Amino acid sequence: MVLRTARVGLRVTAGQRRRCFGLLLAAGDAWACVLDMNRWRRQRGLYGITNFQQLCRELHKAGPGVFGELNSQCAEGVLRRYSDAWFAAAKRRKNGDATARFPRRKRRLVPVRFRYGCFVIEDQRVRLATARGHPPLWVRLDREVPYPAEQIRSVTLLNEGRRLFVEMTAEIPVATYPPGCEPDSSRMAGVDPGVIHPFAVAGPDGEGLVVSGRAIRAETHLHLKDTKHRRRTVAKRAPKPGQAGSRRWRKYRARQRKLETRHKRRVKQAQHEAAKTVVTWAAQRRIGTLVVGDPRGVLTLKVGRRHNKRVQDWRIGQMLRYLKDKAEQAGIRVVLVDERGTSSTCPACDRRVPKPRGRQFRCMHCGFSGHRDLVGGANIARRGPGGTITTNKNPFPVVITHRRAGRHLPGTEPARRDPRRRPHHGTVNGSHGRPRPAPPPGGESLAPGEDQQHGLITNVR
Ligand SMILES: [Zn+2]
């Protein structure tokens, strides 16, 4: 059994929206209360309360109705979250990680988790439990429940900007395969994560997979460019220190948040697609172990603002987590290894070669050449448990499958509803879009001509 989480949007009426945001606000209040209480206690020389049971006792001393419609189980959920975060930070600090911080930041809206028993799922509706004395809160989902209702363990209400979502966590059995088709743990593949190709996989039997992430990069660039442009335009409307923001400024901020969350959602979706592609490909080839290069050791180095930004937009931790989750559900083991030097070692003669500039790897010692990211993948596979690849039994990939992640993103195909510029090559400062036929002599107008208008009216009547 593995735990999987899926996010589903909500379709709410104005009243339901108000109540949902009320719950998020109440959870934010509960979170702020714990932080404040512990700050006061420490200022008075008392110890901070971090133990979950003790926190619950403090909560029940406060009595019912303190946190609006939030019921006590959900309020306890907030305390549990605080307690878990505190102990996780304490553990990391004890192990010598000085960067770990205790929870200290207040947030206005905090996600509310409804435990098993605090929600009811019926068709496309969910009932969220509220405090005693309040009417039941039913909300409609914008798609079908992705898991069988009896497998769902918890439902979390959260917001992204002004949109409301629920995250459903379900216990899902690990995939079963017909006999003879199940993943074989001795069959290994090396996975090289990268910016241009989110995953390049060198598998056994001379097969390889390259997932292209150009669409993700295009989306990132476009978003960055738009953000810059928007910032420049509204900079003069920004409130001065000590000044309250204008209504116009607040509107701009809301729009900015909306676009930011949309960008994040799009990238996330594309990354899920990339990970899914790898796992499906591996399962079809009975690969039981994915050896994944973990570049996070070298990412803390400062390498200039452009590359720093690129690395930050990559969201590698998130990508590896998606891959791990999906592989686990498919019954495939994931092993993380250090990827240092794997892209600059020749897989044929094992000698160091200067890092290639393009996508093609060439060895000046033995004349070997191949796809640069697959070279990384092949070298990573050798670092796996007892792993050897590119022997006679496992040659360097010659059959390469190419897949794209993020087909939904603007730039792969023109999206009708996306008013933004298409990505382009060549001119730096904006493009004029797709080539169009020249306008007719005398100019053109979108307004219907006089004769057309008459024709329309006679047709209708
Ligand atoms: Zn070589």
From TrEMBL:
Domain Cas12f1-like TNB positions: 317-380
The keyword Protein biosynthesis is annotated on this UniProt entry: no
Disordered: annotated segments: 227-251, 402-461
InterPro entries: Cas12f1-like_TNB, Transposase
Segments forming domain Probable transposase IS891/IS1136/IS1341: 178-297
Any GO MF annotation of the entry: endonuclease activity
Coiled coil: none
The keyword Nuclease is annotated on this UniProt entry: yes
Segments of skewed composition (Basic residues): 227-239
Sorted UniProt keywords: DNA recombination, DNA-binding, Endonuclease, Hydrolase, Nuclease, Transposition
Family designation: In the C-terminal section; belongs to the transposase 35 family.
Official protein name in the record: RNA-guided endonuclease TnpB family protein
Species the sequence originates in: Actinoallomurus vinaceus
